[in-house]
Amino acid sequence: MFGVPVSFTSPLPLADITGRAEACAPGTEVRALPREEAQTLAARLRVIADPTRLRLISMVSAHPGREACVCDLTEPLGLTQGTVSHHLRVLVDAGIFTREQRGTWAYFALVPGAVDALLGEVAAL
Amino acid sequence: MFGVPVSFTSPLPLADITGRAEACAPGTEVRALPREEAQTLAARLRVIADPTRLRLISMVSAHPGREACVCDLTEPLGLTQGTVSHHLRVLVDAGIFTREQRGTWAYFALVPGAVDALLGEVAAL
């Protein structure tokens, strides 16, 4: 690199020497995900962006028929029944789980394709 | 409901009358995603569970080469430069965007496969 002449009369970066504008001159029209769609998608992602809800999804998913009794879900999490019920309700409200009462116990099942549909929307961004 | 005899000697629900155990007797071993893995995955999901960051991902993704100048990203979002910079930094720190300084402007590019890898971990739950 020694011996390469340095021009002190031209302290600007190469982009300017070559006549390229310093100002931002976008040549491409930017397509942003519309604000409301982004808000809806973010809210749906926040449903699964929670460690307890991810664990619940993994537990129900590991059960035969991807369905589990609430009585099988509470103890392994080491959380109170009220806390687990709250997270289960969020997952039901989001359409990720269904809830079915059978006698004493409620059973929760994964809605086929619900998580995949959400992930697919992000993948398509 | 009037006229239906009420047994005061058997106040238990039907499940008990029929001999079915009230206690939860899980027949299946439940495999929950380990707590620490769930916390890490949830934190990574929170990065994309934000409307502005989803919009930034969609904008950069729509640019040729999936790379865009910061000067093209700020104005369409209608947010201050500081706010956009914050969100861009979160995306860089999470390994979703790379940042390259070229003269005056910084350029942000999608890391190939980064979002897909995150989505794939959720899909595999």
Largest interface summary: A-B, 49 and 50 residues
CATH class of the domain at 51-125 in chain A: Mainly Alpha
* H/E series of chain A: HHHEHHEEH
Which CATH architecture of the domain at 51-125 in chain A? Orthogonal Bundle
Low-pLDDT windows of residues of chain A: 1-21
Instruction: Classify the beta-strand content of chain A into a percent band.
Output: 5-15%
Query: Could you tell me the mean pLDDT of chain A?
Result: 83
Helix-and-strand structural type of chain A: alpha+beta
Molecular structure report:
Two copies of one chain form a homodimer. Chain A contains six helices and three strands. The longest helix of chain A is centred in the first third of the chain and has 14 residues, at 35-48. In chain A, a hairpin with a 2-residue loop joins strand 2 (97-102) and strand 3 (105-110). Chain A has a three-stranded antiparallel sheet with strand order 1-3-2. Residues 1-21 of chain A have low confidence and may be disordered. Chain A is 49% helix and 12% strand. Chain A is α+β, with helices and mostly antiparallel strands. The radius of gyration of chain A is 27 Å and the shape is elongated. Chain A has a domain at 51-125: Orthogonal Bundle (Arc Repressor Mutant, subunit A), CATH 1.10.10.
